[in-house]
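Lab notebook, design round three. We kept the backbone fixed and only want residue identities now. Task for the bench partner: fill in a sequence for the structure below.
Input C-alpha cells:
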C-alpha cells in the first residue's frame, strides 16, 4: 500500500462515515467533486459524492459507462489523472464529457475484483499541483471496507 502522511487523518475522518471521509479527501484537492462509483454493467453508479459547492449533497447521478473516465480506470486497473481533458488527447471519444480535470483510482475487493472508483473531478480547470493519486490509492481499500460494512448492515 502506498505510504501517505495523510492516511491517519483520512482514517479518522472515515470513522465519521463515508460523507466525512469524502469531505476530508476533497479538502486536500482543488477539484469540486470527490466521489465513489460502482461498476454496474453499462452504468457507473454513484455510491457517494461530496460537492464542495453543495456540501449537504451526498449522492450524485449515475453515468453511462461509455461516458465516464472511470471506465478507463476499470479497464486498465491503473490510476488516471489529467488536468485538461481537451489538451490530454487520450480519450477523444469522451469529448462530450463535462469533466475537465480528473484524478481517480480503482477500488477493488481484497481478492482483486474491481468494484469501482474513488475519484476527484471538476467541470472547471483546477490549479496545477501535486498528484492526488497516492492518497486516493491508500484510501481506496478503506472505502471498499466501509461500503461492504454498509452493505452487510442493509
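Proposed sequence:
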Amino acid at each position: 500500500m502506498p505510504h501517505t502522511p495523510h492516511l491517519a487523518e483520512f482514517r479518522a475522518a472515515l470513522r465519521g462515515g463515508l460523507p466525512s471521509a469524502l469531505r476530508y479527501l476533497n479538502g486536500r484537492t482543488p477539484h469540486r467533486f470527490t466521489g465513489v462509483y460502482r461498476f454496474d454493467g453499462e452504468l457507473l453508479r454513484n455510491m457517494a459524492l461530496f460537492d464542495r459547492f453543495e456540501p449537504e449533497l451526498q449522492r450524485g447521478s449515475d453515468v453511462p459507462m461509455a461516458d465516464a473516465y472511470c471506465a478507463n480506470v476499470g479497464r486498465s486497473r491503473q490510476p488516471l489523472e489529467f488536468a485538461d481533458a481537451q489538451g490530454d488527447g487520450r480519450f477523444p471519444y469522451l469529448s462530450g464529457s463535462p469533466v475537465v480535470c480528473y484524478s481517480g483510482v480503482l477500488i477493488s475487493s481484497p481478492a482483486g475484483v474491481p468494484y469501482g472508483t474513488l475519484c476527484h473531478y471538476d467541470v472547471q480547470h483546477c490549479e496545477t499541483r501535486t498528484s492526488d493519486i497516492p492518497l486516493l490509492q491508500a484510501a481506496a481499500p478503506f472505502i471498499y471496507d466501509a461500503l461492504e460494512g454498509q452493505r452487510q448492515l442493509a
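Keep this in mind before ordering anything: DSSP finds five helices and six strands in the chain.
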